[in-house]
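Hello,

Following up on my earlier ticket. Below are the two sequence lines again, exactly as submitted.
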Amino acid sequence: MEITFLGTGSMVPTIERNATSILISYKDENILVDCGEGTQKQFRYANISPAKITRILITHWHGDHIFGLPGLLTSIAKFAPEKRIDLYGPVGSSHYLSILLSSYIPMNKSNITVHEIKDDCIFFENKEFKIKAFQLEHTARCLGYSLIEKDKRNINMEYIKKFGLKQHPILKDLQNGKDITWNKKKILAKDATTTKRGKIISIVLDSLATKNIITNIKNSDLLVCEATLGSELEEKAKEYKHLTSTQAAQIAKDSNAKKLIITHFSQRYKDVSPLLKESRKIFKNTLAAEDLMRVLV
Amino acid sequence: MEITFLGTGSMVPTIERNATSILISYKDENILVDCGEGTQKQFRYANISPAKITRILITHWHGDHIFGLPGLLTSIAKFAPEKRIDLYGPVGSSHYLSILLSSYIPMNKSNITVHEIKDDCIFFENKEFKIKAFQLEHTARCLGYSLIEKDKRNINMEYIKKFGLKQHPILKDLQNGKDITWNKKKILAKDATTTKRGKIISIVLDSLATKNIITNIKNSDLLVCEATLGSELEEKAKEYKHLTSTQAAQIAKDSNAKKLIITHFSQRYKDVSPLLKESRKIFKNTLAAEDLMRVLV
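Thanks for your patience. The regenerated structure is below:
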């Protein structure tokens, strides 16, 4: 899985930090999480075609997370008119999207299916991965997301040789966790395969620290978490229901994350290294996101 | 008058050309013409505070001319909550703006008065200048604008000396074109003053070439005119009701403009010098706009 930070700012974009947008690329999927103003231009800087987007996950309908949607959708509809995009978001998403799409004179028609997510759940699943949403605690209805790669079973070729079995279509069954019979002998999937645990990427933007976050993001290989403010502004963060760099690190620690990337920085921080330092005190393996940064998970 | 080209692209923004937006600064006024996506970031690059905007003129409600409005208005409302902005545009502007402002969860409230302009008219006037709107011919209801500086009278001090008159409050009357009496002698404003003609900036975006444009923009000191396509795509331009570089130059020539700046280039032109060359063949004093270019008139 590759994650590209298209925008790492918050309410007010700066020259260095565009409004929030994150792209997760995994096999044929390109999943965009939020779409702040100027996201389509960030795609240009990242040299990725927005027409490759397969799904859009919206955390919430504050402007800094969605002002880039109409431009992005207009461009996609121009260059890939047949393209169908699934957009997921909290309750109210259909309402806001339909209003947004009627707020200007369209030059072409977007082909979007909206899915509203009410409760914490896995709302998408295919052969390779699933996506989970969970409630956050912000000043607007807001969701966190986890992309969960499915575990993969690799055949222990040495083991199955003992049964006189080599490459054969029946191995697919073992790979899918099904026991098989070969030469009248039973081969158990659990013995004949080793499991490679799938990776988990969790994204927590715009929230207070809650137990529900910890419950849902446990053991993430990568946690991307907002740290709008430093701990010196903890009261302000609380008032606007945002996380500080210290709180983000505590969430990473409590949820047993492997790696933390903090993002969604207030425009007041020209240099975010003090926030990074705060986080690292609590959770060592922390990075501060920069626009156009790419990370492999 | 200073004009700053914040965005010089058209429907699809590129790294080099943001979507359309032009700022005209004149004394205490900062008038924004259109507001494509990312305009607030362009303000940052131009090192101008968007809170300085006094009026916004919208040519039409196609996305590439307005997608930057919600972000810009949100930022202005954050940093200058008392700020009141007048927004002018074609019939339908109130409808589109009110929908646009309800398409997201607001974090603060914008203070905007919308003025819809139905017919060709001067819709704003103060001591120093007036603004005129005129109908264009596009695929959406679309307006062109002229900013017309008022003529100024300078006192001919040598002339009034003959009447025994020097600095005196009564000179204000002469400056306002009023004849006065001094030492029982009549002094005529036309004799005692010289007139400095006010400058005219006209902006024509997204239109076919029409007689109405020529009628309205006559004798502009600067004509800013769209040239979305080159003449090799004249048929396409006609289909989408846009101007070519050749047509823009012909308009400048026919309307007796002093200077032409072409803008609103299609993303297909990485290099617009062929378009500039075409224009210059017909109207020599032509420039091609670039993002963040500033021109004094």
